[in-house]
Amino acid sequence: xxxPSNDPIYLQLLLTSAVLLLAAGCGMPIGYxxxxxxxxxxxxETLAIDIEMGSWIASVHSLATPIGSFASGPIMDRxxxxxxxxxxxxxxxxxxxxxxxxxxxFLLLLGRVVAGISVGLTAAPAQILLAEIxxxxxxxxxxxxxxxxYSLGILLVYALGSQFHWREVAWGGTVLPLxxxxxxxxxxxxxxxLARNNQPDRAAKALTWLRGCPVQAKQExxxxxxxxxxxxxxHNRRPQNFWRSLGELAIVKPxxxxxxxxxxxxxxGTYLVVFYAVDIISDMGxxxxxxxxxxxxxxxxxxxxxxxxxxxxxxxxxxxxVTLSGLGSGLSCVAIAAFxxxxxxxxxxxxxxxxxxxxxxxxxxxxxxxxxMPGIMIGELLPAKIRGQIAGxxxxxxxxxxxxxxxxxxxxxxxLKTQGLFLMFGIASFAASLLLFLLLxxxxxxxxxxxxxxxxxxxxxxxxxxxxxxxxxQSGVHHGGEEGKPLSNE
Length: 490
What we know:
CATH superfamily of the largest domain: MFS general substrate transporter like domains
Helix content: over 70%
Number of helices: 20
CATH architecture of the largest domain: Up-down Bundle
Oligomer: single chain
InterPro entries: MFS_dom, MFS_sugar_transport-like, MFS_trans_sf, MFS_Trehalose_Transporter, Sugar_transporter_CS
Order of helices and strands: HHHHHHHHHHHHHHHHHHHH
GO molecular function, one term: transmembrane transporter activity
Number of domains: 2
Radius of gyration: 23 Å
Subcellular location: Membrane
Region (Disordered): 471-490
Transmembrane segments: 9-33, 84-103, 109-130, 142-163, 169-187, 255-278, 290-314, 321-342, 354-378, 390-409, 421-440
Structural class: mainly alpha
CATH class of the largest domain: Mainly Alpha
Distance between the termini: 27 Å
């Protein structure tokens, strides 16, 4: 292949960096309730709140996010991935302004709703754009990178909240949306979307810029257009009915895997600990611990481990990483629950504080692996023909579930106590590991076409892939993986 000697990786990283600015901006409203609520519970605060209003302020963000997620699929399919992301930035900026200037509880809730809609609008287009511009060898790293930025945004809002009034924190939240809008305005569109929307010239230009090699870009564009032509021929060049396509085996299997994991991930506490970090740490550590500073420490740990998991995605199999993550999360949760049961009713000692802090940090470090998986699964497992539209609906379902759990969290904590909640987190973590161990295919280093072909096989369990492969060979069907190695032989 005759190409320039310079490695084009930095061009893909440059576009990813533009998305990361926005991802950090979306992480800030996710963690904002953890610093906003303790200040508003102060009776001297002008907009002081009770537990009922606090639960709404914490959870309404997740209630609003599905609105954006639901709209994001049609928007990015109709106008493209990049315009959808640019559109999503506008309400994020507006939401922070509403929060910063709020004079009533209604305006606080409205600001949270507007910011939540923006986060919903952003999630699917950002993950899909990165999945479609990345080479197979980089895809895990690039898709996982936004979760580093989410964690950075959470850490940033925690750090600001520990030093500044909640209104000043809200004004600070407007900076990243502005910077990301400028950066993404000059970014190229997804070549996959361009190729599937009869814009081959723009697709070729985008691929050449991303790959740094006209020959490689031409070959990749040929595969994209060939795949699209095959799909059109199968349906007599008529657009396939979206709802009818959901009955196809290649779509049913990834949808079941993704949705089941979403439920277990939420129940494992991945986002609940972010929303209610200060409350949980206060319960575990007693009055001797500075819960705000401890929440900042948890955000630092989450950021460090998210960064680590991104590089693990580059170096180790997906299945091994997420299985170990779930086992570590489950064991640490069981240890936390056992520790709190044993120490229930006993006076808190400095040793209790150190043990509690160590266990919660281990849990956060292990469970962070779950945070990276939904974006990776949506970016890798879904077929190209419905990837944009169905991704928005998947994020809609996810955020509706998250809202319900976040809204009920204070009441569940009152009934089960913190130790009971962590026991639930542990059981859900073990169940998520088992689910992915049984059903998730190994996708590291594989093209999106190869992954789609794997899901067309009749086997559901990953351990049965060789038998399914042998049956296909006997029937004369062949699906080749990257570099001639079938995905089913991984």
